[in-house]
Amino acid sequence: MKLFLDTASLQEIKEAISWGIIDGVTTNPSLIKKAVIALREVDEQEDIESYIKKILATAGRMCPVSLEVAGLTADEMTEQGILLYEKFDQVAGNVVIKIPVCTINSKGEGGIFDGITAIKNLTEERIPVNSTLIFTPEQALIAAKAGAEYVSPFAGRIDDRIRRQAEMSFEKNDYFPATGIYDEDNNFLTDFGLVSGVDLVSQIAKIFQQYKMECEIIAASIRNPIQAREMAAVGAHISTVPFSVLKAMAQHPGTVDGIDAFTGDLVKEYLGLFSSGV
Ligand code: G3P
Question: What is the DSSP pairing of strand 238-241 with strand 216-219?
Fold first, then answer.
């Protein structure tokens, strides 16, 4: 499974890329907002265009970077996707345009098939698309049919929706069992027939495999290392993880204990090997 970093922080991207385990980067308007707030604290002047160019150059040619459009109509999203691609892909040839699968908002603006139309339009222009805000396997299916190179199912937010339905209190990064949960009255909880975010990704993986669809699944909205592990086990091609989750993936208390024990057992005879040269 490939690992993408879910961030717009240049600092985080630089650091994670230096470890040699990052295959791509995903951003969204909320992550860009966070990065801009942090950027303004240290630099009043730097414009977002040069900041994004630094992200693309840091990620490099082999690491696709998703940049999201801002509009809700097919025409706006197509135009913005082309603009983003033309402005930024020349930096490192790694831009992917992120398009919401469906842009209807709570005010009823946007269009049911505007996302799908924009995916089709950009695909015809040979611009790679990552279709985002996927909450059901059927949304993933139609995004892939429209030509999306990637789909991004929001796993953690499915788990949030299931817990909220049962009015459960939880912390954002709490583990949610892949096999689902029951409420206090012993009712099994689902969201549109899905028992968890891992279930969402697992069902998309089965469908894509069954019909030999080339679209890659980016398991997104990943909240903890166990969820990333489960995504790998159910066949996500990629997990996009926040920096904090990436750091947590490298750690275990048993490793800490082992480090303590091994460093405590270093004898001078063995240490001598390292001071005598090759
Ligand atoms: O990649 C999607 C991601 O940024 C959303 O994550 O944690 O806000 O649900 P989250």
Answer: parallel
Give yes or no for residue 137 CB within 6 A of ligand 1: no
Using the atom order of ligand 1, give the atom closest to the CA of residue 28.
Answer: 4
Cα 238 to averaged position of ligand 1 atoms, centre (Å)? 14
Which of 5, 6, 99 to mutate to test ligand 1, by most ligand atoms within 8 A of the CB atom?
Answer: 6
pLDDT band at 277 (very low <50, low <70, confident <90, very high): confident
What are the start-end ranges of the E strands in the chain?
2-6, 24-26, 65-68, 95-100, 129-134, 150-153, 216-219, 238-241
CATH number at 2-274: 3.20.20.70
pLDDT tens across 96-146, in order?
999 999 999 999 999 999 999 999 999 999 999 999 999 999 999 999 999
Q: Where are the domains of the chain?
A: 2-274
